[in-house]
Design brief:
The structure holds two protein chains of two kinds. By secondary structure, chain A is α+β, with helices and mostly antiparallel strands. Chain A is built from 13 helices and ten strands. In chain A, strands 2-3-8-5-7-6 form a six-stranded mixed barrel, surrounded by four helices. Chain A is rod-shaped and about 115 Å long. Chain A starts with 13 loop residues before the first helix and ends with a helix. The relative contact order of chain A is 0.17. Chain B is built from 13 helices and 16 strands. Chain B has a six-stranded mixed β-barrel. In chain B, strands 2-3 form a two-stranded antiparallel ribbon. The chains are: A alpha+beta, B alpha+beta. Chains A and B meet through helix 3, strand 3, helix 6, helix 9 and helix 11 of A and helix 2, strand 2, helix 9 and helix 11 of B.
């Protein structure tokens, strides 16, 4: 690049050199000055660039986290289980196709599990609630269930910790009776939840239906997505299954909304503070750098450079620094965000390229500001005064 | 001479010192605010998570099985054991009473509604709405207000000493009853104060003061269950251990940590013949969510500390770099490397202390502002943090200046004075 204005010595006459220089594009000198400024004062240019990179990286990471944290926390909240419950209207059981319909509507946007419940009698005549459920689905939906061993073979039941004392205190096989039909069961393991499940006996759904003839009366749905998306799913389910009453689990929805909102607000406040600090750091480093080069400035001015050219020169320098810093910082910031995602949420934070324009624009504004401010101060001073070192 | 040099440097270079001081102040402000937010976020989020409902349940120890489907209890109301209402204030006498944000006893009873000559069986849920209770000298208010904050009432909440009731939303729609109506329930004329909407089984029930439910089944002081809402710490390996298998010191540590298990254990001790257990759906997930949020804010705080350290060191480096002519002069007059370095370090310490002081105060105010605008409650910064913050400020300022000072003392006085570096 530096050779573009010159021709090899000796091969042409002085006239040619002059002509060559005259025809050389004007920008080449401009570009050369920019490059020389960066190369000659490597240390300070590097420290200015470093500040810019760090600021852009921190800004990118914070913005990325801010955009992504909602999705991450929603996933955590889905561990609370169902946020929508389908029950038969007016106490009736659900229509036979309800489960298939609900699965079609959900289309992978969450998990669901059907439950069928009856009151049966134990061998000594005590009333007990027996439930039929699909154990694989329950495992996904209700992760907080503390289960000693999931049933795997036929005629095995999952017995609540409190129900165990009533049906099988010595872990012996037991009989349950419902409307004259008796079923013979063994206990595969116990379930502890601290709630109503502790007093129940769970069977696999096909066995339950074969024994009682009762179809599922409740479908619990854990739908993922924003409140609007969940409202849409609920609406679609109401349309698809007219015989069902679709109810939101309000405490889960409200708690989720509150915690998410507050976390995002806190993160936004933190991001604002951090970005402000980083921007000020860039501003002070860059202003120091530009101020330091007041001699260059004075020489250029003394040699007849116009104010416009000088402004352009320092602005171009700042813009180049801002752009390089922003892009390197962006890549670094994505890395930091991904690491935080992995360390804290055990899932990578997806890179959001929508953040890039903001980081780029912000970097430009900060670098231009930190170049223009000292220049406008220096412009008022005579070059001679600066060159004398006063 | 040393003191005079430092003093004069501050007197004469007010602008530069002000700039460096401002950078330090800003850095410390951000760091203090973020540390304050990070130390308090667990508690704040814990309170927000209480919106999801009670995380502990106290039941009678020798109870018969619950026969409950879809929230409707099919067990005969007089069957099984009861807790005594008189024992409930003792909940506030446990070790972790400050962590218990509220509790609500419930007593579901069967009632018959007589209406237009027909009768219908309904469930009346007796509970506390916002009852004033005193334990020792302490007075507090508790009830479903605190433990079930998602309940919405149109109309008015009944008074706990009245005989007024709330009607569940779906029940009210079915009966086309409204606020202000009179209902004939099990031979009593009861006034409907409002319609309650919960999204749960209560929507099909009548909710009234617990004394009314006790009167209906003729068991004064009887309570079926108590829902307790407590601020807990996410459980870890120690929290999951069985207290019976612990040795003395481990047991003390377990007992004095607000794990769901240890609070449940203490509730069981406080209320005779009771069995307390965590509601795993709430308690377990709460721990997971809290750990994530705390971890996130901790990492963000690290980023904030890093950014403010960088800002401080950038400002210090610029300030020292601008004074290389001065360094050249000092060295030309015979000052050693040590003398030059100690002057700069003394200046840096002074700046750091002043910046740290102002920054700590400003950061405290900022944290308070954040707390008030996001959580509607104060985030107070503990004075214990003050020396820590000051030490961090001095350390960061030192670290930031070290490279610049090293460069400055290594300068050749001739070049420095000619301004050629």
């Amino acid at each position: 690049v530096s050779g573009s204005g010159f021709t090899p010595a000796g091969s042409h006459s002085a006239q040619n050199v002059a002509a060559g220089r005259a025809h050389a594009p004007h920008t080449s000198m401009f570009v050369r000055m920019l490059l020389r400024a960066a190369v000659l004062r490597r240390g300070r240019a590097a420290s200015a660039l470093f500040a810019m990179v760090v600021a852009a990286a921190v800004a990118t990471a914070m913005l990325n986290l801010y955009v992504d944290v909602q999705a991450k926390l929603r996933r955590e909240f889905r561990n609370y289980g169902a946020n929508i419950i389908l029950v038969g209207k007016d106490g009736a059981s659900l229509p036979a196709n309800a489960l298939a319909q609900a699965e079609t509507v959900l289309a992978g946007r969450g998990v669901l599990a059907p439950f069928a419940l009856v009151v049966a009698r134990t061998g000594d005549g005590q009333s007990i609630v027996v439930a039929g459920a699909d154990f694989d689905q329950v495992r996904q939906l209700d992760r907080w269930w503390s289960v000693s061993n999931w049933p795997s073979a036929p005629q095995q039941a999952l017995v609540g910790v409190r129900a165990l004392a009533a049906v099988s205190p010595k872990n012996q096989p037991f009989d349950l009776e419902f409307q004259g039909h008796t079923i013979h069961l063994t206990s595969a393991g116990t379930v502890r939840t601290g709630a109503a499940e502790d007093s129940r006996v769970y069977l696999s759904l096909p066995e339950f239906v074969a024994w009682t003839g009762v179809q599922p009366s409740t479908i619990e749905v854990a739908a993922t997505g924003s409140p609007e998306e969940i409202a849409t799913i609920m609406h679609q389910m109401e349309q698809a299954i007219p015989g069902a009453d679709v109810r939101p689990v309000r405490q889960i929805m409200e708690g989720e909304a509150r915690v998410l909102g507050k976390t995002r607000a806190t993160l936004l406040a933190a991001a604002a503070l951090i970005i402000l600090t980083a921007a000020l750091c860039v501003l002070s480093t860059l202003m120091g750098w530009v101020f330091d080069r007041r001699r260059d400035f004075a020489i250029m001015k003394a040699l007849g450079a116009s104010d416009r050219l000088l402004n352009g020169f320092f602005a171009a320098e700042a813009a180049a620094l801002g752009a390089i810093g922003a892009i390197v910082g962006f890549v670094l910031g994505i890395g930091i965000a991904a690491w935080i995602g992995r360390a804290n949420f055990h899932a990578p934070v997806v890179p959001r390229f929508s953040v890039l324009p903001f980081v780029l624009a912000g970097s430009m504004v900060v670098t231009l500001l930190s170049a223009i401010l000292p220049i406008s101060l220096l412009r008022r001073v005579q070059p001679a005064v600066i060159l004398r070192g006063e | 001479m040393f003191v005079r040099l430092v003093y004069e440097s501050f007197r004469r270079q007010k602008r530069r010192k002000l700039l460096a001081g401002a950078a330090i102040t800003l850095g410390v402000t951000v760091a203090t605010a973020m540390i304050a937010v990070a130390t308090d976020i667990g508690d704040k989020m814990n309170r927000e998570l209480r919106t999801i409902g009670a995380n502990l349940l106290v039941t009678p120890q020798e109870d018969t099985l619950d026969v409950e489907i879809g929230g409707v209890n099919l067990k005969p109301p007089s069957d099984g054991a009861f807790l005594s209402e008189a024992d409930l204030p003792k909940i506030k006498g446990t070790f972790w009473h400050n962590n218990i944000t509220g509790f609500a006893p419930v007593l579901p009873v069967n009632v018959t509604l007589e209406r237009d000559g027909k009768t219908e069986n309904l469930t009346l849920l007796g509970t506390y709405f916002a009852k004033k209770i005193s334990f020792g000298k302490e007075e507090f208010t508790t009830g479903v207000h605190a433990t079930h904050p998602w309940w919405k009432v149109s109309g008015a909440w009944p008074d706990d000493s009245s005989r007024d009731v709330l009607l569940g939303e779906r029940l009210a729609a079915r009966l086309s009853a409204k606020t202000g109506d009179e209902l004939a329930l099990s031979g009593r004329q009861l006034h409907v104060d409002g319609i309650v909407s919960t999204g749960g089984p209560e929507d099909d029930e009548v909710v009234g003061p617990i004394a009314l439910a006790q009167e209906i089944i003729g068991k004064p002081g009887a309570v079926r269950r108590v829902y307790v809402s407590a601020l807990t710490k996410p459980e870890d390996a120690l929290g999951r251990r069985d207290p019976k298998s612990m040795s003395g010191p481990v047991y003390d540590r377990w007992y004095c940590s607000p794990y769901p298990q240890s609070i449940a254990y203490q509730l069981q001790e406080a209320i005779p013949h009771s069995h307390a257990e965590q509601i795993r759906q709430v308690a377990q997930n709460e721990g997971a969510v809290l750990t994530r949020i705390e971890g996130l804010i901790f990492l963000v705080t690290l980023a904030a500390l890093f950014a403010s350290a960088l800002a401080v060191s950038a400002a210090m480096a610029t300030a020292i770099f601008e004074r290389r002519a001065e360094v050249g002069l000092m060295k030309a007059l015979g000052a050693g490397r040590f003398a030059v370095a100690s002057i700069f370090f003394a200046e840096a310490t002074l700046l750091a202390l002043m910046g740290g002081l102002i920054g700590f105060a400003a950061g405290g105010m900022l944290a308070q502002q954040i707390g008030r605008s996001i959580f509607n409650s104060e985030i107070t910064i503990s004075p214990v943090l003050f020396p820590v913050i000051l030490a961090i400020a001095v350390m960061v300022t030192f670290a930031g200046s070290a490279a610049a000072i090293r460069k400055a003392v290594g300068l050749d006085p001739v070049f420095a004075l000619r301004g050629e570096l």
